[in-house]
Amino acid sequence: MKTRRVYVCRECGAQNAQWAGRCDACGAWNTLVEGVSRPAATSPPRTPVALADVACEAVARWSCGLAELDRVLGGGVVPGSVVLLGGDPGIGKSTVLMQALAHMSRDLPALYVTGEESSAQVALRARRLGLDAPNLKLLAETDVEAILAASRTERPRVLVIDSIQTVYTPALGSAPGSVTQVREAAAALVRFAKESDTALFLVGHVTKEGQLAGPRVLEHMVDAVLYFEGDSGSRYRLIRAIKNRFGAVNELGVFVMTETGLREVSNPSALFLRQDAENAPGSVILVTQEGTRPLLVEVQALIDESASANPRRLALGLDNQRLGMLLALLHRHGGRATFRQDVFVNVVGGVRVTETAADLAVLLACASSLVDRAVGRDLVVFGEVGLAGEIRPVPRGQERLREAAKLGFRRALIPQANAPKRAHDWGIEVHGVKHLLEALRYALGAERPEGPIPTGGPGGE
Ligand code: TYD
Ligand code: MG
To answer: Atom 12 (ligand 1): residue with closest C-alpha?
Structure first.
């Protein structure tokens, strides 16, 4: 297909051969952006059909040999699907895709396109990983037209582009990695994947701000967006689906980085708990459930007198805005102020918790640090806290309770509405609460003080 550089108006979509400050067609200023024009494909006009008449077989899935990755994808790789894998440099994107591709190349033609490393470097990694993949083809190329030409000859069923930021369209003048380049290159590759029913994996880098570099635009072009998460200091790696047309979002896959690549961790629920931890104030165990599997994590809070007129609020692994809201709740409905304190909250192990079911655990961790009293390590907590201080139910309460019981926790502090209605023999004592004050009283024995609300902690009034 012949392509040609054009300038497209963002307002009206008119194409111009030359850049200009003003669009000739609609008269808007500064709306022309670089693009490429492709001859329109001539397809016969289609007529609408009844929804019930549309044939749809169950989607076939290929296993990539890593059960955790299969699960995050929604049960395996879907032919013709496009998956964007994002993550910090060095976190393991190339490693996991090389492992997956090597496995899939046993039964399917597979092509790994590398734009960042030489073929020799990639081959060296594969060897170090001990991968046996005689049918896996490698291509060191960054010109998208050349990649497409090679793909049309090789006809892979699985194609990896590592990374999309290195791929460029020669028809465009802008530098590789620019938004226009990344979008055009990705569009051409996506079109190829859909036409040829090839499963396509695009590796994308993440900027310091935690966004996929430039191409947030890519997220809507692909079927699934997976993010690699994890502490650089820890060996654990998480892959999370933040968008998936073929499976559940927020599904988490857990891996550990070893000498010989990524190993899956199939039973990770207690992985992020420090087994040897003592019963310290400010630490609360949360049962989180993102995706289809409960995970127990430790939420830690440190509240200390601030030396600054603007005390700091910092949430790691949690939403900073929500922390501000929870601290206001703690003051208004829990009678504990933190105006003069720095507040730090962290989820141990580099896990990101995005669900509101973490509210109660975060609040209790803060209160526990503030009054310097531990809640006990036999206790697990979950629940959303509303603006009136009410404790609201969360999805899948029973599953969370069962998992905590299985791991030997003996007490659970949860929303009343999530408490089991009938007697159960899970071996965990369930304490359901309706209001924040009840929760604070149960966990810390704190009563709402009489008179004016005190500022908690040392240095308070
Ligand atoms: P890599 O997959 O190259 O990261 P990305 O493609 O996301 O930039 O992973 C690089 C890191 O993983 C590197 O710091 C070394 C480490 N590693 C291992 O610990 N064991 C291994 O077997 C491999 C291949 C890499
Ligand atoms: Mg890489």
So the answer is: 92
